[in-house]
Write a structure and sequence with these properties.
Elements lengths: L10 E4 L9 H28 L6 H18 L2 H10 L3 E3 H34 L1 H7 L2 H27 L7 E3 L6 H7 L5 H34 L4 H34 L3 H26 L1 H8 L4 H31 L1
Parallel strand pairs: 1-3
Antiparallel strand pairs: 1-2
Helix pairs in contact: 1-2, 1-3, 1-10, 2-4, 2-10, 4-5, 4-6, 4-8, 4-9, 6-8, 9-10, 10-11, 10-12
Amino acid sequence: MKPGNDTQISEFFLLGFSEGPELQPLIFGLFLSMYLITVFGNLLIILAVSSDSHLHTPMYFFLANLSFVDICFTSTTVPKMLVNIQTQRKVITYAGCITQMFFFLLFAGLDNFLLAVMAYDRFMAICHPLHYAIIMKPTYCGLLVLVSWMMSTLNSLLQTSMLLRLSFCIEVEIAHFFCELNQMIQLACSDTFLNDMVMHFAAGLLGGASLAGILYSYYKIVSSIRGISSAQGKYKAFYTCASHLSVVSLFYCTVLGVYLSSAATQSSWSSATASGMYTVVTPMLNPFIYSLRNKDIKKALKRIIGVPVISWISFFFFFFLIFFFQRLFIFGTERDRA
């Protein structure tokens, strides 16, 4: 890859949380804790689904896949950030940056597709209960997951291949704690019109189609629930969707918040803080949402470590997390003004 001065670039600088040295130990400890909780929590979900025969259903099959993807999604960014903080270096190689971006796009896309597949599963279970067992067979569920992997892989390959054609200036600084596609395109020295078009088209097509599918599924679900005569039947139908609806709301609201905050501010600190919400916080909270709101998962987890422990830890850590990110964002805003 040749930049304008015919010198090949070999590394990038990840600004992220690089400033504010007094906060570095706290940031390292917090993100290490969140990463370990994410891995441990999602592994528990996978273990619960695989070990309990009552959970061998399409809904929990998709949930186990989502947990695996969340572990991989977080692992593409957080370990590198922790190493940078510990070694006090902000450097990532060009090859490492491209590799990180490929896997980040891959697992972010998989999160998006799996949430849409899970919404489709709930739509079939509530709106077409008589045909549910016939349609949602293991082979069909596996095919849905396979198609999700294929589509996400193709999109990731396309985006990273398009990025390889760009030229970069020397000492490129990325205002994130990981290699983010939009930031990389903005930092390129060559013409990025085609990259911008492909990026926005793919985001609109894949992300928009998944979100539209989710909204349509829940529109039909709500319509079906309203047609149920008994209050107990309505509650039972809605209860099966509550956890998934919470995860969907958390995922899309945090992603939307990141891009709105990126458009409103040019601060690397604020952008990194906002990005941390959906790259780290959302995958960490997903297991807690399902363990707290799902009776079947509760029963399976109770045999492993005990639900009360999970409940109290999640309750305490969630409010600590909100407080920390609020203080972190305020600190970055005050520092920018100063």
